[in-house]
Amino acid sequence: MQHGFPFPAKDPNLLALGFHTGRPVIIAGPCSVETEEQILSAARAVKAAGGTMLRGGAFKPRTSIHSFQGLGVEGLRLLALARQQTGLPIVTEVMDTAHIEVVAEYADMLQIGSRNMQNYALLKEIGRAGKPVLLKRGLAATVAEWLAAVEYITDSGNSSVVLCERGIRTFETSSRNTLDLNSAVVARLESGLPVIVDPSHGTGRTDLVAPLSRAALAAGIDGLMIEVHPNPACALSDKDQQITPEAFRSLMDSLGLLPEASEAVR
Amino acid sequence: MQHGFPFPAKDPNLLALGFHTGRPVIIAGPCSVETEEQILSAARAVKAAGGTMLRGGAFKPRTSIHSFQGLGVEGLRLLALARQQTGLPIVTEVMDTAHIEVVAEYADMLQIGSRNMQNYALLKEIGRAGKPVLLKRGLAATVAEWLAAVEYITDSGNSSVVLCERGIRTFETSSRNTLDLNSAVVARLESGLPVIVDPSHGTGRTDLVAPLSRAALAAGIDGLMIEVHPNPACALSDKDQQITPEAFRSLMDSLGLLPEASEAVR
Amino acid sequence: MQHGFPFPAKDPNLLALGFHTGRPVIIAGPCSVETEEQILSAARAVKAAGGTMLRGGAFKPRTSIHSFQGLGVEGLRLLALARQQTGLPIVTEVMDTAHIEVVAEYADMLQIGSRNMQNYALLKEIGRAGKPVLLKRGLAATVAEWLAAVEYITDSGNSSVVLCERGIRTFETSSRNTLDLNSAVVARLESGLPVIVDPSHGTGRTDLVAPLSRAALAAGIDGLMIEVHPNPACALSDKDQQITPEAFRSLMDSLGLLPEASEAVR
Amino acid sequence: MQHGFPFPAKDPNLLALGFHTGRPVIIAGPCSVETEEQILSAARAVKAAGGTMLRGGAFKPRTSIHSFQGLGVEGLRLLALARQQTGLPIVTEVMDTAHIEVVAEYADMLQIGSRNMQNYALLKEIGRAGKPVLLKRGLAATVAEWLAAVEYITDSGNSSVVLCERGIRTFETSSRNTLDLNSAVVARLESGLPVIVDPSHGTGRTDLVAPLSRAALAAGIDGLMIEVHPNPACALSDKDQQITPEAFRSLMDSLGLLPEASEAVR
Fold first, then answer.
1. Regarding beta strands D133-136 and D53-55, do their DSSP bridges make them parallel or antiparallel, or are they unpaired?
2. Does D145 touch chain A (CB under 8 A)?
3. In this structure, what is the dihedral angle of CA atoms B85, B91, B94, B98, given to the nearest 10 degrees?
């Protein structure tokens, strides 16, 4: 068992984002922030269907340098605009120590992506920004390594950390990754931290997002992170796994998480 | 896509075992048949808690030759006795073509274990026994290979096949295997066959059996196969993953599958 | 450490096949026996280039039932004919207990394929046939499981066992499997048994067969098993990994294993 | 195929470090720089046995924050001192964009470690430092992803890149990682860049370093990276895989790479 685990429940900064309430936190939004219209449209759809936080990538870690690399600071500005219009807190990825300050200026929660789960320089610095951190699991990281990475963040005194399981790399090719609910449950038991699941990356297939979302919540997971795009076919990244606003609404309905009719109209 | 897929729903032989009814099939019982008292006690507990089929190994594939190898035909006889006393149909593993006939004489459903998923001689013969077949996924088999193995069985004209996902082998060590719900859902979509999940082997940890059982059913899976032993600490195999009758009852309760009070008293 | 390991070196039955001599044993031949002309042509090419045993599948474990399934007993007869003409001992796969007797009648060494490494019924019986056994590693088997499988064979009193590493299943897709020389060396150290490597299955690419063959011998491995076909493009199985007689000759030359010119002319 | 591949052979900056000469480049030295005495002693041993470059970590990526984190800039200074005394060029890891400038001031070659293979912010910046880059493969990276990462470096106009295979993560536990020579050979064929192999991390076992080193060179690989420590039992990191100066000398002898007696005496 790592030092400091399990963490006491009910961290106030996480409570402010909707964790520890007994109701799942639903983070949704596009893979990448692309245009003002796109992010605002996505944010409104997320809000209307009962989503509780907005996601969207401004700094994007892309396997190929020839792929869309994100809008950078302009993307952060658009996310802040979407927050202003919908009231949804925003979470977005930080890829380098040099960007922590600027991202922390705009975001409510800072995300460490899978590829940087063991970027220790970044982990050491990010805790000091004074914002909650969402730590995605590396695609070949064991639970033990994942929790060891948490300690690089909490060592700064910031224990507002949420874990996100997003699929591991296995031999199977019928889904992009293998969503590992076993480990999500184990990480939750061992760390005492909230653990959410990302079925969009965890499956890579729109037809699997809904069944695996239901599975994760049934397993007692604290929330979901789901890619929703106003027009997935035209998305600049992750075309095959982003769902439409309509599919998101239908998913929220099947999870029993759609806001009351009266609220939804607001 | 393999030839013959997807299979038409509602195979009558599977319907007789409780598949295709909209209600999950719950197969439970000990890893191995050990004694008359043990299997009868387990069978009664399974029945009382609402289980719909009885499992128990008579011929056991054990990694080490120094481990308990099963009771063989005597184990089959005890399973038949348990069926007589509880009315539960029985499923048990066949490990070799030479045993198909004798196992088919006693069992209601013939199981192909993970290690034999690509034992093609066995697959070719087993379909001819005229009994439904439960085909477990090999621990490193892709969905495509799993469905290709189905065709070795159905080629004999017997299409009463049920698939069982039981965890795959990955780098992760905090659970014995990685339960792969992604692939269970994909196999169900592609084959049209019923797919069940074995969270006992799929996790190898008693504390994960309940959350992953709930997850599997929430994902739309057709049933569960769960190891239940009257006294897991003394089990001759799989000590760490068999649950007690009390834990099984509690699991069935949490799944909303406990029989009505009046029925349970019978 | 498993019981009985490490085995004493210099088993006489293995010595008779060329193991324990300090010179690598080179087993070569087609994936499947297809026709008399094909197997005789392959056997002559193997012999001429310095190969020491002939391989060829008569009973074939194929992922799809729609693929060529092997010639069965007729294939065994053709292998025996090739042995008669070249003097090369033959090794061929047994897939089921029901075939052990007939294969043992023809073959000098009985092969257990990867998919059957944990077919315990087969392992228990095969040792009793009185022939040396070649045990291929399962594609997701640990070294510990592989050596535990050996004990199912040696429990019959037959310790003439040779191990064959043939690639494991990983996430990598640029080669068909990942040849695991680490484990081949470990298995050799721990078991005391001869260990050979199959770079044809271990890589699945003709352009990798030669470099990985050289690597295996440099690591101290006892021999190689290589797929050689007179006309790979027309092969009924494993087209992409079988090499031509010319490529085999060139490989043997680069390994310093080509017979003296005078012998080759015979 | 990625853009720009394969690269033309004979990059002058790499030639200056001994690549492209037909003779393997042997990089050796301790996992971490610990003290002046330790690194100087290691450097002298590496030089005397015929090693061609010195390795040593100053900034260390450690799974646990409770482990030794490296000496930082002081470590770089000690490496430079070792270079001054032995003439060996030095390679050391950069973990963050903020450290590129200082590391480039001291090192002859900048290493990107496995955990940062997809740290794109770092990859984009490092090429601009004007030094050759050693890019280690991520422990679950495909060859395609590895070569895509190269392009993040070469996009800056710096094509002095060497690849290093250091073992991948698989299910096998008898060695720390699985050294993947298949992929090392494929990466070499596809990229045209020099590829070296790190059998220390690739096996994690001192008894496997020599056989796998021989295997790698026999497969045509361009060099080796080997952990050598004056006193492995007291090492502050990677105790189980660092070899002694004597073992390194013996390895170089078995590779036929020991300097002539007259030179060694110098």
1. unpaired
2. yes
3. 50
Return the HEC string of A53-97: EEECECCCCCCCCCCCCCCCHHHHHHHHHHHHHHCCCEEEECCCH
| Closest C-alpha to D167, from A158, C72, C178 | C178
Our CA-based measurement puts residue A116 at a distance from the nearest CA of chain D, in whole angstroms, of 6
C169 touches chain B (CB under 8 A): yes
A218 to chain B, minimum CA–CA distance in Å? Answer: 5
Residues in chain C: 266
Q: Which amino acid is at D59?
A: F
Among D64, D116, D169, the residue with its CB nearest the CB of A119 is: D116
Q: Does D144 touch chain C (CB under 8 A)?
A: yes
pLDDT over 70 at B70, yes or no: yes
ipTM (interface pTM) = 0.95
B198 touches chain A (CB under 8 A): no
In this model, does residue A65 exceed pLDDT 70? yes
Give C5-39 pLDDT, tens digit per residue.
Answer: 777 668 999 999 999 999 999 999 999 999 999 99
Looking at CA atoms only, how far is residue C170 from chain D in angstroms? 6
Residue B97, chain C, CB below 8 Å: the answer is: yes
**pTM for the model:** 0.95
User: What pLDDT does C261 receive?
Assistant: 54
Q: Give how far Cα C73 sits from Cα of B250, C61, C104, C228, Å.
A: 55, 15, 11, 21
- Find the residue in C nearest to B122 (Cα): C96
3-state secondary structure of B133: strand
- Name residue B147's amino acid: L
Bond prior to D30 in cis (omega within 30° of 0): no
Span D165-189, pLDDT tens digits: 999 999 999 999 999 999 999 999 9
Residue B27 contacts residue B226 (beta carbons within 8 Å): yes
D109-162 pLDDT tens trace: 999 999 999 999 999 999 999 999 999 999 999 999 999 999 999 998 999 999
* B15-59 pLDDT, tens digit each: 999 999 999 999 999 999 999 999 999 999 999 999 999 999 999
Decide if B220 contacts B195 (C-beta within 8 A). no
Q: Which two tokens stand for residue D241?
A: 């895989």
CA atoms within 13 A on the CB side of C90: 32
* pLDDT surpasses 50 at C115: yes
CA of D137 vs chain B CAs: smallest distance (Å): 17
What amino acid is encoded at A22 in this protein?
Answer: G
Percentage of chain D lying above the pLDDT 70 cut? 95
Strand partners, A164: A136, A196
Give the Cβ contact number of residue B146 at 10 Å: 25
Alpha helices in chain A (DSSP H): 12-15, 36-48, 73-86, 100-106, 120-126, 143-154, 181-191, 199-203, 206-218, 245-254, 261-265
Neighbours of A222 (CB within 10 A): 24
What CA–CA distance (Å, rounded) separates A227 from A211? 15
Classify burial at A60, counting beta carbons within 10 Å of its beta carbon; exposed 0-12, middle 13-18, buried 19 or more: buried
Cα distance between residue B212 and residue B219, in whole Å: 10
CB neighbour list of residue A84: distance below 8 Å, 6 or more residues apart: none
Other C-beta atoms closer than 10 Å to the C-beta of B262 total 7
CB neighbour class for C161 (10 Å; exposed up to 12, middle 13-18, buried from 19): buried
Amino acid sitting at position D22: G
Q: Is A116 near chain D, with CB under 8 Å?
A: yes
Average pLDDT over residues A181-187: 98
Consecutive H or E run containing C208: helix C206-218
> Can you give B48-104 as a three-state secondary structure string?
HCCCCEEECECCCCCCCCCCCCCCCHHHHHHHHHHHHHHCCCEEEECCCHHHHHHHH
The phi, psi pair for C93, rounded to 5°, reads -80, 145
